[in-house]
Amino acid sequence: MPITDPIYRSTFPPSQFPAQDEHPSPNSVIPTAPYKHDPTNLDVFQLEHRPVKMQKRDDAWICPVSSKASQSKKSVKDMVQPIVEMMQLGCHRPDGKNPISLATADPTMPHLSPCTKAMEAVVQASMYKPHSAAYTHASGTPEARRAIAMHHSFPERPLSPDHVIVTNGCSGALELALSSLLDPGTTVLVPQPGFPLYEEIATSLGAHVVHYRLDPTKGWECDLDHLHELMLSEAETVRALVVNNPSSHGSVFSKQHLERLVNFAFQHRLPIVSDEVYGSMTFGSNKYHPLAQVAAWQGRHVPVITTSGISKQFMVPGWRIGWVTFHDNVYGSLRQVEEGAHRLAQTLHGVSRLTQAAIPTLLSATTPGLADWKEKHRVALERQGMLLCSSLNDCFCLKVGPPQGSMYALASLFCERLDDSIQNDMEFALRLVQEENVFVLPGSTFGAPGTVRVAFSASEETLELASKRIADFCRRHAKHRVAPTRVLGV
């Protein structure tokens, strides 16, 4: 596993890297072989920390940590650390089972090539536009903000570039949006299960997080009854409702369900923070409906803050380009929040001007070949999702619906059908790594105990191999003898 700096190891190595000296020098650079992406390798949480030796001295002192840093919630990485350590040890197993990670989606797999139009736009900007190396506005380049505004404009609710801020990935957009809304002691409603970053950001700001349920019997739709119940006790402190569609566990909301969410927000006078990073990555009859447009269709004066980016939809997560758009109502309810967000953006000093050059190309409906590229990758992901979900459904202790969108699916786990060594989803994931070197994400880490999340961004060959190992594992741990099942492609 190549090293990217003296402290951490990563699966994204450059052509050369510093040796493990305490202070890297030109003489500590070790050449490596050209990097080849191995889809069976562990592409998540691949960090190896070297502990610092502590010494007791009479003149020693401790630097105080900020309250924001100390009150940040424990991350998913910490929660699954035992599984990560087990998988790191299994990189060179005597049984020859290479590690396979289904825990997180990697859009940079070889068969999911980045959009060439994006790469060409960046190259052209660097070679033919001298100003690409210059400073730019903290809220983004005019060209990028104009393209984003056009992309998120609707006849019922047009958007100007002034209402756009370019950020460091969609995660940066979420942090900026929530930082502009929340104060210590205030409350935000977030989905459960959901993206853990919502809670991590909110708690770091000193805000309270209240989870609202998603209903697995209705395709993980938001439980509106539960939301109304929560507002009976939390109404005075709630500042915002967070919605994720398409979601990080694979659900896609219908237009009718989004309309009900808008009605809820209107009734309780809440702005909606809509995380739409997966955008049009939907399958089958499931369609992507921008929440700001749904609110405009409804005629409801509900302010919507949309966060999105190019990481997932265009297979360039390392470029860290996202944005936040402010869709205000006729009353200007978001005016102060938006002004505050622009002020906060000044502290970040802007996003790379060079990578912003790709945004107008990627968001233009007239870019030659772009629509074909998106459809090709969408079809590939749908096929991979169908393959994995069909195989998992052949396992007697797992049940998952057809993939709806994004790159993930959430499978229900029936531990009562397994032997006593597996009592919950954490134990299932840990033993699966120990015995089969396959990494799935336990649902307990993001508020969905009794489930496991799987990503289907890997190649079909890798998914078939992972499915076979999971089937073997489940059969081996069956409480009652189970006949072997056929795994697709095996």
Automatic annotation (TrEMBL):
Span of domain Aminotransferase class I/classII large? 99-470
Which cofactors does this gene product need?
pyridoxal 5'-phosphate
Enumerate the Gene Ontology biological process terms.
Answer: L-tyrosine catabolic process
Q: Does the keyword Transferase apply?
A: yes
Q: Where is this region: Disordered?
A: 1-30
Q: Which residues form a coiled coil?
A: none
Drop me one GO molecular function for this one. Answer: L-tyrosine-2-oxoglutarate transaminase activity
Question: Which keywords accompany this UniProt record?
Answer: Aminotransferase, Pyridoxal phosphate, Transferase
Entry keyword ATP-binding: no
By its UniProt entry, which InterPro entries does this protein fall under? Answer: Aminotransferase_I/II_large, TyrNic_aminoTrfase
- Known PANTHER family for this protein? TYROSINE AMINOTRANSFERASE (PTHR45744)
Record NCBIfam families: tyr_nico_aTase (TIGR01265)
**Protein family (similarity comment):** Belongs to the class-I pyridoxal-phosphate-dependent aminotransferase family.
Per its record, how is this protein called by name? Tyrosine/nicotianamine aminotransferase
Organism, as annotated: Nitzschia inconspicua
